[in-house]
Amino acid sequence: MEKKLVFSGVQPTGSLHLGNYLGALKNFVDLQKNNECIYCVVDLHAITVFQDPIELRDNILETTAAFLASGLDHKKSIIFNQSSVSGHAELAWILNCVARIGWLNRMTQFKDKAGKDREKASVGLYIYPNLMAADILLYKSTHVPVGADQKQHLELCRDIAQRFNNDFKKNIFPIPEPLIQKNISRVMSLRDGTKKMSKSDESSYSRIDLKDSADEIVKKIKKAKSDSLPIPESLSELDSKPEALNLLNIYSDLNKSTLEKTLNEMKGKDYSYLKNKLSEILIEIICPIGKKITQFLDDKNFLEKVINEGSEKANKIAQKNLKEIKNTVGFL
Ligand code: TYM
User: What distance separates the 2 farthest-apart alpha carbons in the chain?
Assistant: First the structure.
């Protein structure tokens, strides 16, 4: 079997949350056991929306700390920040000339983020998916672990890779496969089960942050929206109860169980029972990660060393591939 080359990225735009952990980080950690993995703190992506420079610097280190605290090992995986490898921006330009405007116009995340004020959004926000394709293709990555919200961007990346290979009649890029968690590909807001859990939600009660204390977790789960009726018997009854489904899904995933088994255990019980169990398991799994993030942040020199070493390794691969890509395009 061909070896996987895994790449993924996380934006340094604030504390990471349970959605980032269950949808992405947990999978990053599993994949590093048997594959070559490259994990990137995507600071070039972050500035598509204005970032305070001092906060951005802190957030780059905090995201690196969250990678390590979740179980990534910088000796096994390459961990670095995107802006320190110039190949990302260089390849993004080439891919800007391969991707079609019509393809970008279909991106729902741009529409959501730009909102009604589309004319005032940065050009960077619009071409953001091309930079994401560059991140992946720069390393000739074959597999990309992400949450379901990134699926459309991954499809665009595949189209760009295919188009490049066709235009230049050379198989330069592998067509990367998305790796999306089956049971919990989209962790939803604790306040509204139809919206994804997100850093940008104004209410901190909508999410569990990886740095939340045990008390905060208990409070947030207590306040989480559920349902006035007891926990139903069947999966089909959950279709119209997105908040209940979300809590049950999170619990099942943390408990390494399935939704069916969880429902069997909990049917007919009040949501307070599920909420108590959920708080317990969150405290058991998330609090140690939060503590480790704080510990890593106490040693900024170490974090800087990790990303400097990672950048050097990433740059070597990037430069080699970029040389071939530039040669293919016809640059001298
Ligand atoms: P970002 O920084 O928004 O999120 C990082 C990862 O967390 C996942 N995620 C979720 N998964 C499940 N439920 C949620 N509520 C949830 N919220 C976030 C995201 O799917 C993602 O996997 N564009 C990307 C970063 C990126 C990237 C890349 C990813 C840049 N270049 C190349 C893969 C490959 C982003 O903004 O992720």
Answer: 70
- Let me know if residue 195 belongs to a domain: no
Supply 148's token pair: 């379901």
Q: Is 136 in the pocket of ligand 1 (CB under 6 A)?
A: yes
Give the Å distance between the CA of 229 and the centre of ligand 1: 34
Same domain as 165, residue 120: yes
Per residue in 24-34, pLDDT (tens digit) is: 999 999 999 99
Whether residues 273 and 169 share a domain: the answer is no
> Does any domain span residue 157?
yes
Protein residue with least CA distance to atom 16, ligand 1? 19
- Residue 196 within any structural domain of the chain: no
| Pocket test residue of 5, 6, 7, 10 for ligand 1, highest count of atoms within 8 A of CB | 10
CATH number at residue 215: 1.10.240.10
265 shares its domain with 306:
no
Residues 218-270 have pLDDT tens digits of 999 999 999 999 999 999 999 999 999 999 999 999 999 999 999 999 999 99
| Closest residue by CA, ligand 1 atom 26 | 9
Pocket test for ligand 1, best of 5, 17, 18, 20 (most atoms within 8 A of CB): 20
Active site residues: 113, 196, 199
pTM of the predicted model over 0.85: yes
Tell me: do 243 and 151 sit in the same domain: no
Closest Cα to residue 68, out of 56, 80, 57?
80
The token pair at 190 is 């604790």
Q: Which residues of 78-89 are buried (b: 16+ CB within 10 A; e: fewer)?
A: bbbbbbbbebbe
Low-confidence ranges of the chain (pLDDT < 70): 1-2
Cβ–Cβ under 8 Å, residues 186 and 180: no
10 CA from centroid of ligand 1 (Å): 6
